[in-house]
Write a structure and sequence with these properties.
90 residues; mainly alpha; 4 helices; 0% strand
Length: 90
């Protein structure tokens, strides 16, 4: 796994793509769970868990000296947080 990560070019754009793609996939899974499990019908805060995964992945890339990828993931986390805020307010 580390060999595959070391092949990634240290680019903010790659981090932005990772930071937007991973929460998007997890949000689809959360949406499915919310719409199909009766007890979780009003558990919109599960979407925050999908966004919080970015914190772990950002820390992972920083630990492996891919600072620009980590910065891209951080930027994507802010974008996802603003989208969630918009979803909850409007």
């Amino acid at each position: 796994m580390i060999e595959q990560i070391s092949k990634f070019k240290d680019s903010v754009w790659i981090g932005l793509a990772i930071g937007l793609l991973v929460p998007a996939i997890l949000s689809v899974i959360v949406w499915y769970i919310i719409n199909h499990v009766f007890y979780l019908a009003k558990a919109d805060l599960l979407y925050i868990g999908a966004i919080a995964i970015n914190a772990y992945s950002m820390q992972y890339f920083f630990k492996h000296y891919k600072e620009n990828i980590g910065r891209g993931i951080l930027a994507a986390t802010f974008v996802c947080a603003f989208i969630f805020f918009y979803y909850k307010v409007f």
